[in-house]
Amino acid sequence: MDDRSTATVPRYGLAPPTEDDALAMLSRALGSDRAVSAWMAARAAAGVRGGAPLTPEALLAVAERLQGEGDGVARVVAGSLAVRARTYLLLMRHREDPAERRGR
Amino acid sequence: MTDERGTAAAVDRERLAEIAALDLMSAETDAVLQETAEEAAARLGLPISLVTVVLDQAQYFAAQHGLEGWMREARGTPVEWSFCVNAVKSGEPFVVEDATRHPLVRGNPLVSEDGIRCYAGIPLVTSRGHTLGTLCVIGKEARTFTGDELAMLRELAAKAVARIESRRKA
Fold first, then answer.
1. B138 and B116 in contact (C-beta within 8 Å)?
2. What is the Cα–Cα distance from B95 to B119, expressed in whole angstroms?
3. For chain A, which terminus, N or C, has the lower number of CB atoms within 10 Å?
4. Which DSSP state fits B62?
5. Is 0.90 topped by the overall pTM?
């Protein structure tokens, strides 16, 4: 991972969500066995492979896949994770330009 | 404390299950919820109104009027920045007249970086007793909210809940 994918967003104090975060969120809702199964299925469906830590972009891809194709509460938790990942990526993209960040 | 945390976690799992059953994470915005948000903003003369769904670690905007920039694109925020989570936790309206002075939100980056100054959110409570999120209005200037304005928001929130309940899957 490069520095950008682990850095906290300046002034917002937001860290990038990690795969451990994702599994913890899913485990609280589904139990650990179902959480791992659902996450790994979404990871494979999103074409995300390898043991290295996921970038925020890859994590967002897996979360969006699970949100679109998972069952019940898994979709909701994946949606929550996707919002966090999108927020992180958008704020990092516009971190040097407050006006652009606010859409002006 | 363990029992209380366990009970709270179980209640929140039930709440998330209801959010799933109501299909509130759909990519397509519900037209009635969108109209409700637009009406709330117009009737209170504020630039932003949202129908929010408070999730476990984020809030999701099921409908929005007036958002710009990253919040519009993200369709939500991390839950620790959510004003609406206060209404969901209490089950009562949450009102902020000047966010720079309010103890619960004055350190929030949505105030310091994105300029939110006033807020009023009415909890959306289903017939099964779960508080899903809020109908809320947001402004960039400090202001007060009258009883009549909050009553109007309550009426619109009831309309939003009726629409949301109609989405319940059999």
1. yes
2. 6
3. C
4. E
5. yes
The chain A residue lying nearest B114, using CA atoms, is: A102
Q: What pLDDT is attached to residue B7? A: 63
Residues B25-35 pLDDT 10s: 888 889 999 99
Classify A10 as helix, strand or coil. Answer: coil
Determine, for residues B16 and A73 on separate chains, whether the beta-carbon distance falls below 8 Å: yes
Nearest CA among B30, B10, B34 for reference residue B130 = B10
Whether B109 and A75 lie within 8 Å, measured CB to CB: no
- The alpha-carbon gap from B36 to the nearest alpha carbon of chain A, in Å, equals 23
Nearest CA in chain A to B58: A80
Residue B50 tokens, joined: 């949202």
Highest mean predicted confidence (pLDDT) among B9-13, B23-27, B148-152: B148-152
Coil, helix or strand at residue B129: coil
Distances B23 to B52, B61, B107, B131, B168 between C-alpha atoms, Å: 13, 13, 33, 15, 7
pLDDT tens digits, one per residue of B85-134: 999 999 999 999 999 999 999 999 999 999 999 999 999 999 999 999 99
Phi-psi map region of A11: left, alpha, beta (phi>0 left; psi -120 to 50 alpha):
left
The alpha-carbon gap from A88 to the nearest alpha carbon of chain B, in Å, equals: 9
What is this model's ipTM? Answer: 0.93
Mutate to test the interface with B, among A14, A66, A80 (most CBs of B within 10 A): A80
